[in-house]
Write a structure and sequence with these properties.
2 helices; alpha+beta; single chain; globular
């Protein structure tokens, strides 16, 4: 994640990484999957978890991601948060591979404009345990913190 973000936002995004990744791993190991969730950092540095609910018993993940993104975007627009993460269970194509693999995907954004996607591939071992691969990241266009908003 380091080469895609500034030193200014690194500490905040590291806090969100340390909040979201262990929780995602816990849910994955306990349930075999998880619904998308978010973690935000308030202006004073406090962090909190959030989720989306659309009234359906088994909602599609895309709908929940949209709800979480819009909610965090509203908080960013009102100047209530300085960083955000949305965590989801996805299938991703690793660099130099041809088949998709399961991965925990974490989308990080900061009010400085830094935005990055971090992936942690995983697979289920023969004993049912989860084995994690090597984490990788890529830059992304911000969708929660838009230019000209969130206290800029």
């Amino acid at each position: 994640m380091g080469r895609f973000i500034s030193a200014e936002s690194r500490a905040d995004l590291d806090v969100l990484l340390n909040e979201s990744l262990p929780f995602a791993k816990h849910l994955l190991e306990k349930n075999g999957e998880f619904y998308p969730f978010g973690v935000s950092m308030g202006i004073k540095g406090d962090s909190r978890h959030c989720a989306g609910y659309d009234g359906k018993e088994f909602p599609p993940s895309d709908a929940l991601i949209d709800l979480i993104e819009r909610g965090l975007g509203q908080e960013a627009k009102m100047g209530q948060i300085r960083a955000a993460c949305i965590c989801m269970d996805v299938r991703v194509l690793r660099q130099s591979e041809t088949e998709k693999v399961d991965a925990i995907k974490m989308v990080f954004e900061h009010l400085t404009g830094d935005a990055v996607e971090v992936f942690l591939p995983y697979e289920r071992g023969s004993a049912g345990n989860i084995e994690y691969g090597e984490m990788f990241a890529q830059k992304r266009v911000p969708t929660i913190f838009h230019a000209g908003e969130a206290g800029r």
